[in-house]
Amino acid sequence: MKVLVTGVKGQLGFDVVNELTKRGHDAVGVDVSDMDVTDAESVNRVMQKVKPDAVIHCAAWTAVDAAEDNEDKVRLVNAVGTENIVKECKALDCKLIYISTDYVFDGKGEKAWLPDCKDYSPLNVYGKTKLEGELAVSENLQKYFIVRIAWVFGVNGKNFIKTMLSVGKTHNTVRVVNDQIGTPTYTYDLARLLVDMVESEKYGYYHATNEGGYISWYDFTKEIFRQAGYSTEVVPVTTEEYGLSKAARPFNSRLDKSKLVENGFKPLPEWQDALSRYLKEINYGAD
């Protein structure tokens, strides 16, 4: 199978190309210098040349706070860019996996969001534009997977774990919010699931994060420091006490993943295990 992967220089795209290659698929990874998703001509030229059987669309504007001051640019990448890809997928009759986010919901309550829930109410520009991308996919294609993820970390690029390791090394105490609840997603594990999906025809909406229960960012940080062998004290604070964020964040990022098992997909391993493997991968941890 020939699969085009956008955002190959990002955390997820990097791992997806590796997983596809490992399984013997013809993976074509592109980034903005190869195919600018915001430019319809660029997308048309590359996709008509590659003629993929499937596209795994990982490219996105993901800087949540910066998005608040750059709405037009963010919409161009997350919504218009996705529309351009959708148009070519339709012309080539190829599958599309669109990577989305729990930010399409308002994050209220304590119930886990179901993948087929349509109660969209994004709180920020990033969430709004990712939802616009979702709708471009669902309203124009039949052969699609919309996969919502949360709290992503991978080898390639910046993420929460790398930030905490850096801060924890130079500070005796770290303040971390304890009223935003969700589950982390390791891109290495997610890549395996996405390739399982693209090899199938079980289309639709899915939620995919690591297993191991719902936690706060405070809980996550405590486990990061424990596994890394740090003695840094983690102080729990509310989102309001923490302040500073330009974009509103959802308090409830719980994603219900039961549909994966119902449709025969293997869930991601527990997040504690994912963290352990990740720290080894980036040469961190208490030996």
Order of helices and strands: EHEHEHHEHEEHEEEHEEEHEHHEH
Shape: globular
Major sheet: size, sense and barrel closure? Answer: 6 strands, parallel
Percent of residues in helical segments? 40-55%
Number of strands: 14
Indicate the structural class.
Answer: alpha/beta
Radius of gyration: 19 Å
The overall pLDDT, averaged over residues, is 94
Q: What topology emerges from the helices and strands here?
A:
Blueprint: E1 2-6, H1 11-22, E2 26-30, H2 40-50, E3 54-57, H3 64-67, H4 71-92, E4 95-101, H5 125-138, E5 144-149, E6 152-153, H6 160-170, E7 173-177, E8 181-182, E9 185-186, H7 187-198, E10 204-207, E11 210-211, E12 215-216, H8 217-228, E13 233-237, H9 239-242, H10 258-262, E14 268-270, H11 271-281
Parallel strand pairs: 1-2, 1-3, 3-4, 4-5, 5-10, 6-9, 7-13, 11-14
Antiparallel strand pairs: 8-12
Helix pairs in contact: 1-7, 2-4, 4-5, 6-8, 8-11
